[in-house]
Amino acid sequence: MNESKNTIPLLFRCPISLDLLEDPVTLCTGQTYDRSNIEKWLAAGNLTCPVTMQKLHDPSIVPNHTLRHLIDHWLQLGPLFDPANPETSTIESLAYLKRTLESHESSLETKLQALTKISLLSDEYCSFNKSCFLQLNFLPLLLELVFGTRVSIDHMNFIELALCCIQKLLPLGSLEPLNMIKDGSKLAMFVLLIEKGTNSVKTSLCRVIESASWSSETEDLCYILGNSPKLVEEIVEVVNQNYEVSGDAIKAMSALCSLQSNRESLVRGRAIEGIMRYISSERRELTPLAVRTVEKLMGLESAKVALVNHPNGVRTLVDMVFKVSDQECSESAVEVLLVVCGEFERARETAIESGVLTRLLLLMQSQSSNTTKSKARMLLKLLRSEPKNN
User: Domain U-box, which positions (predicted)?
Assistant: First the structure.
């Protein structure tokens, strides 16, 4: 807002003060003024438009959001932005910012400023901006900057902002550029960042893992991430220790579980223990997803053993059996209990001691789906049958 009057485009000046429009509003005559200036004009008893001198048949003022938007762009991009041709200036601005990031001569501070401007532009999901980012191949560049050797892990502010930009660009096009993370050194950097990074960095990396599970293009990457013992260990650690990012870590774990070939690695990495801890915590908005993830893992004998051996594993699932607010959660919990109670007598005993019979009866009388009720009846029958010798 401190730009000199000589550099402010005419379109962005208030006709009354000739200063930059801070809150542009438009009169019924089509003329735009700064709100404070035109309100003073009208409050003084003037019933005409200052520019056209037309009598105002309607004195109301309307916010000019389009002009406000253009001014915001100009304030961020400065001389790179041409208000007369905003689309052309956008692609030229992005091309300039990309060259800044690519240049070995640009300082870290200059690159950080460029990233800030890119982040602002990537917030707008208009079709033109989308095509600009795709055409200029920003995603591969940003991935290289974060996971390559161009930026040290000590420059966490830069990495944090670059990852935020990557998150915004992932939904725009092909996910194939993510495959560069399969490279040994880049994978090592990925693991190091999820271990040492800020909460914002950890969140972004968990969302990158989610994205890798969305497409067949990145199936191999999803497999490599899921079979990295250190990475799985760090994700479980986030679930266990990081209250703010635990939900994103649960999503990442669930995404890795989408591949059957990842599940054994997750169990070895103590995923069951981490998920049980999350479900038992006070902050458990993603409990339904967490329980569904446990259900996916129940195809593995090692996962069943881990659940039964967990001090609160069966009890925690019993608590989930009658979830009025989430029928899917109830169905998944019943399905998991069917599996472990069918194989382990101690799981049956613990479930009964934890009050599962009452919960199952309530579930069967609720508005749950026929599938859920059918599974509840099966579990009830199983628990009332003669005990097995295992």
Answer: 7-81
